Amino acid sequence: MLKKLKKCYLYFITLPDRLYPFANKINGHIVRGQKSYLKAVNEAFKIKKGHFGYALLFYRGTFHFIGALLFIVSITLISKQFFNSDTALYFLLASAIFALTYQEFYLHPKKYKQITQKGILDWMTWVIPMVVYLVLFFY
User: Fold this and answer.
1) CB-based contact 34:41 (threshold 8 Å)
2) Which domain holds residue 107?
3) Phi, psi (degrees; rounded to nearest 5) at 8
4) How far apart are CA 38 and CA 24, in angstroms?
5) In terms of domains, do 83 and 138 share one?
6) Which of 64, 70, 75, 116 suits a disulfide with 125, CB 3.0-4.6 Å?
7) CA separation for the pair 122, 126 (Å, rounded)
């Protein structure tokens, strides 16, 4: 079961890599998707270690924002359908924020050598929509 959860987690965190729409030339061949994404990351890291550059940062941030919106819709539906409670929604959002904090400030720096600035930006991209949702609809 834990192995399946890890595989699912890896699938979702690499989704932007696999869907990367911009082309890059590798060994004379034009490629898209994960190979193109990895080349763009490697080129950005050559300029400054740990920095993606503005284009990749915007691209990944867009995926984070869309993921945050999908997550908000999903947990709202889950909390209403299965628990019929706003308290469940608060609990699920708080749990998600805790998990994101752990992921962005402990797990990713340790596993992927992610710099703190990127962790802060990723965390804000996920958490700000959740907070705005709570303030607009439940406060």
Assistant:
1) no
2) 50-139
3) -65, -45
4) 10
5) yes
6) 64
7) 6
The Cα–Cα gap between 14 and 45 comes to 18
Residues 60 and 99 in one domain: yes
Question: Per residue of the chain (139 residues), what is the pLDDT tens digit?
Answer: 889 988 998 898 888 889 998 898 999 999 999 999 999 988 888 887 777 888 888 999 999 999 999 999 999 999 989 999 888 999 999 999 999 999 999 999 998 888 899 899 999 999 999 999 999 987 6
Residues 22 and 41 in one domain: yes
Whether the model clears a pTM of 0.85, i.e. scores above it, the answer is no
Distance CA 35, CA 25 (A): 10
Looking at the fold, whether 85 and 40 belong to one and the same domain comes out as no
Angle 3-95-106 from CA coordinates, rounded to 5°? 65
Q: Token pair of 98, please?
A: 């805790």
